[in-house]
Amino acid sequence: MSEIELDARHLLCPLPVIRTQDKIASLESGDTIIVTCTDPGTLNDIPAWCRIHGHEMLEHRTEGRELSFRILVHK
Amino acid sequence: MNEQRKAVSLISGGLDSMLATKVILDQGIHVEGINFFTGFCVEGHTHAIRAKARKKEKRNNALWVAEQLGIKLHIVDVIDEYKDVVFNPKHGYGQNLNPCLDCKVFMVNKAVAWAEMVENDFDFIITGEVIGQRPMSQRKDTMPVIARESGADDRLLRPLCAKNLPPTLPELEGWVDRDQLFDFHGRNRKPQIALAKSFGFEEYSQPAGGCCFLTDKAYSGKLADLWQSRGERSYELDDIMLLKIGRHLRPKPHYKVIVSREEGENHYLQGYQKCYPTIRTISHGGPITLVDGNPTPEDLEFAARITARYSQGRDSDEVTLTITLPGDEEPEEVTVKPIPPSEIPANWHV
């Protein structure tokens, strides 16, 4: 099991979702990914995408204009 | 035991694709959604930029629809492949630079390719199209064109207007019951609204101008200006994103200025400061300006005067600004007189 980071800052939705989706496609069940974004739209969109696809949102943080999501992959 | 049939549904986030998907889900078909990001989608990105829009709830309606329906949604980046649709639409443009018919052919074709991937193994495609609803892509004579040119042929099912069209493979094979499909037509939305009510859908998106910036006259004008200034039809994602932001003024053919209008746009344009000459006011509150093209030093100073005109120092004799070129560590400081509004011809506004 591994943890990787994805920089999706300065991308507007749905690109952060697409980048997350495409990265998770290459991960295994049990891996985690930390996605960092600046688009406030990700606050709804990334958790929604995770719920739809059955991945688990472990943690969400907001620091200034940056949002980060730690996601546990389930396949 | 009957084989579980699978369909892929083009989900825009609007009501029609939501209804079409629900109709097929209710017939026991396994449905997954697909949504294509062309770069011109109204859905999603621009709502995050302007400060005044920050008060509204921000969500991607395609994702929201998928969650309401309990289906997976796959969002596919087609930015580069879509350029050929925009540059060379076989069936031409609509009222603006909207290649609606070619776009629908492209998207159904992409859905077919996705559906036929070994691991996906889907049987047919669903869209929320309704005959007569859109002047270019949703007409009785263009619907067969989409089916044929996309390669979907009789595997393309439009549940909301299927009874107005010849039976498709899913109907002929008995995978879906044609009697439970619909015969909607025209621009009247009442049948869709009634069907939504019968499903218990109380909230749904119905974007008045469609889901694509290319149908917007002002946006298409800016894109045409970009092509004209470059002498060719070309764009990158950043180009078409920036067309949605700020005031665009072109004082000369070889450069234009993009002036932010408010705080949200300021933050967004800051993200481009490593790519474009960037002008900021420092003696007064004011916008951020990017300069696109091949400006000379004199052009940049003139762009600073334009920037000053839109600053809080617009009525002052002097406004001090910085000009930062891509790759420069230290910005150049300039003090200029704001250009009077009377000296900005209307035709500079793109």
How would you explain this protein's 3D organization?
- The complex is a heterodimer of chains A (75) and B (350).
- Chain A is of the alpha+beta class.
- Chain A has one domain: Translation Initiation Factor IF3.
- Chain A is built from 2 helices and 4 strands; from the N terminus they run βαβαββ.
- Chain A has helices spanning 15-25, 42-53, and strands spanning 3-8, 32-37, 56-63, 66-72.
- Chain A has a 4-stranded mixed β-sheet with strand order 1-2-4-3, with helices on one face.
- In chain A, a hairpin with a 2-residue loop joins strand 3 (56-63) and strand 4.
- In chain A, helix 1 packs parallel to helix 2 (42-53).
- The longest helix of chain A has 12 residues, at 42-53.
- In chain B, strands 6-7-9-8-10-11 form a 6-stranded antiparallel β-sheet, with helices on both faces. Chain B has a 5-stranded parallel β-sheet with strand order 3-2-1-4-5, sandwiched between helices.
- Chain B is an alpha/beta fold and 350 residues long.
- Chain B has 2 domains: 6-213, Rossmann fold; 245-348, no CATH class.
- The interface between A and B is medium-sized, with 22 and 30 residues.
Radius of gyration of chain B: 24 Å
Which residues of chain B form runs of ≥5 with pLDDT under 50? none
Q: Tell me the major beta sheet of chain A.
A: 4 strands, mixed
The low-confidence parts of chain A are none
What is the SS-derived class of chain B?
Answer: alpha/beta
Structural category of chain A is: alpha+beta
Terminal CA distance of chain A: 13 Å
So what's the overall shape of chain B? elongated
In order across it, which strands form the biggest sheet of chain B? 6-7-9-8-10-11
Which class of chain A in CATH terms? Alpha Beta
CATH topology of the largest domain in chain B: Rossmann fold
Radius of gyration of chain A: 11 Å
CATH superfamily of the largest domain in chain B: HUPs
CATH hierarchy: architecture of chain A: 2-Layer Sandwich
Q: How does CATH name the architecture of the largest domain in chain B?
A: 3-Layer(aba) Sandwich
Strand order in the largest sheet of chain A: 1-2-4-3
Shape of chain A: globular
Strand portion of chain B:
15-25%
**Total domain count of chain B:** 2
